[in-house]
Design brief:
Shape: elongated
Helix content: 10-25%
Number of domains: 2
Order of helices and strands: HEEEEEEEEEHEEEEEEHEEEEEEEEE
Radius of gyration: 24 Å
Structural class: mainly beta
Distance between the termini: 74 Å
Strand order of the largest sheet: 8-7-6-5-4-3-2-1-15-14-13-12-11-10-9
């Protein structure tokens, strides 16, 4: 009974003749759809049904009450995760937000956990990397604050954010920044985004598009003028997950190994898919350091001293990074290890050297790193994705 009372209470504050807005969002990673959402908004209430596979399939029903400043005052989200154990498959998250605090509780078959964070007077918004009605609210609250404070284009609005899917009892309230831009645009960056996202808006601050091209979540998001059939799409996502035997990472981790003479060489790396995207100059920007794969930094281990692309590499473990250029690519060997793929630190570089670049006739869908021994003293490190192939010689000293 309790679940059905809330929507009526939410809508009670709306005018009887105020028509609801109905719309949606679709997020794509290349040619693959990763989330779909249907939204109904009337006055200060937002009701959303959403499904995503990022990578685990989750279906969400969310009811939100907004304050006069556009900030969230209360959020109730029911989450179903078909691949979870039975006692964690159904979860309810409730967040109550005041000027001074955010109080969040999470309840599933294992019990209820509650935690509160002090906001310090900041505007606190909910964040999920794959739910774009929350992004729209996040931007709208920041733009409202910018207007009230008479900030100009390019000035920044500091925000606070809390998390729904993450173990919120282990993560504090984090920080975000929204930067209004001319032409109905705004940028966002925050502690979990690793980069800068950009959105476009109409004159009513409806978010029309969102691009994660400059972030680790390289999605393209579009507003839908009609509410999609989220339930049917969710069933399709769940069936596909089941047919694949469970959850599969968007970019699987892999390891390649080879022996060249007395040197055992290993590379551990993430393998993103091309998904129909333009890679060089787009997914992998020119003249910027790339993690050389996905997710955690690419780890390179050699059991004996070698030269790699002409660089003297002592026995040990390193991380590999690359910098693509319009006319070639550089290989970076870095002495720091164990970091996420956005944690490159130039001060730890062992060295940089050019690689040989080739164009493949048959494109490679899944990024691949290989090590091929030519003789007991020499071999080749190769990286292939899409239509490029980068190689560097290995010599065992």
């Amino acid at each position: 009974m309790k679940r059905f009372i809330l929507p009526a209470l939410l809508l009670a504050g709306c005018g009887p003749h105020e028509p609801p807005e109905r719309y949606g969002f679709i997020a794509r990673l290349g040619r693959d759809t990763v989330s779909v959402e249907g939204v109904t908004r009337r006055g200060n209430t937002v009701i959303s049904d959403e499904v995503d596979r990022f990578p685990r399939v989750r279906q969400r029903h969310t009811e939100i009450v907004l304050g006069p400043d556009g900030g969230i005052r209360r959020l109730v989200m029911d989450i179903r995760t078909p691949s979870e154990p039975a006692n964690q498959r159904e979860r309810r998250v409730v967040a109550d937000v005041t000027r001074d605090s955010v109080r969040i509780s999470k309840r599933d078959g294992t019990g209820t956990r509650t935690i509160a964070f002090a906001t310090g007077g900041g505007v606190a918004m909910a964040h999920l990397p794959q739910m774009y009605s929350l992004y729209e609210l996040y931007f709208a609250a920041a733009l409202e604050r910018a207007e009230a404070s008479k900030l100009g284009a390019g000035d920044t609005v500091p925000m606070r954010q809390f998390y729904i899917d993450r173990e919120f009892d282990r993560f504090p309230l984090h920080r975000g920044v929204v930067r209004p831009l001319p032409g109905g645009r705004a940028e966002i960056s925050h502690d979990w985004l690793a980069g800068t996202g950009e959105a476009t808006f109409d004159s009513s601050r409806h978010m029309l598009t969102y691009s994660g091209a400059r972030t680790t979540y390289k999605v393209d998001v579009s507003r839908l003028t009609e509410v999609p059939d989220v339930q049917a799409i969710g069933a399709e996502f769940a069936a596909l997950e089941s047919r694949k035997g469970g959850v599969t990472q968007l970019s699987a981790r892999d390891t390649t190994r080879a022996s060249i003479g007395r040197a055992a060489v290993t590379v551990d790396y993430g393998r993103p898919l091309a998904r129909g995207r333009v890679l060089l100059g787009n997914v992998i920007p020119y003249d910027r350091v790339w993690r050389t794969g996905a997710n955690a930094a690419t780890q390179f281990t050699t059991s004996a001293p070698i030269t790699l692309a002409g660089m003297q590499v002592p026995q040990g473990t390193y991380t590999l990074w690359t910098v693509p250029h319009a006319n070639g690519a550089e290989l970076i060997v870095n002495k720091q290890t164990g970091q996420w793929g956005t944690g490159y630190g130039r001060l730890h570089d062992l060295g940089r050297a050019p690689m040989t670049t080739e164009t493949l006739e048959a494109p490679v869908e899944k990024f691949a790193i290989s090590i091929v021994a030519a003789d007991p003293h020499r071999g080749t490190l190769a990286m292939e994705w899409g239509q490029f192939r980068w190689t560097a010689p290995i010599v065992v000293r």
